[in-house]
Design brief:
Structural class: mainly alpha
Radius of gyration: 22 Å
Number of domains: 1
Number of helices: 2
Oligomer: single chain
Helix content: 25-40%
Order of helices and strands: HH
């Protein structure tokens, strides 16, 4: 049974409302734009555009996540 005289924990407000978080929309929306990679050329080292663009999308996702993390972490 809880003691009625003990103070209750005060809920903290969320502090993740940074405008930097909007950058995380880029790696979500970019692969949804199928006209970017819905073709065979240009080829890069023999790979069709579809394959090497998928790897590029991964790098964009890692880059934007790193930027958002570094800009929004508490100092």
């Amino acid at each position: 049974m809880a003691d009625p005289d003990t103070p209750k924990a005060v809920p903290t407000t969320r502090s993740d409302r940074s405008p930097w978080n909007w950058l995380l929309a880029i790696p979500i929306v970019l692969p949804l734009l199928t006209p970017l990679y819905n073709h065979d050329s240009p080829r890069l080292w023999g790979f069709p555009a579809f394959y090497w663009l998928q790897f590029l999308f991964i790098l964009v996702g890692v880059g934007t996540t790193t930027i958002v993390y570094r800009m929004t972490r508490k100092r």
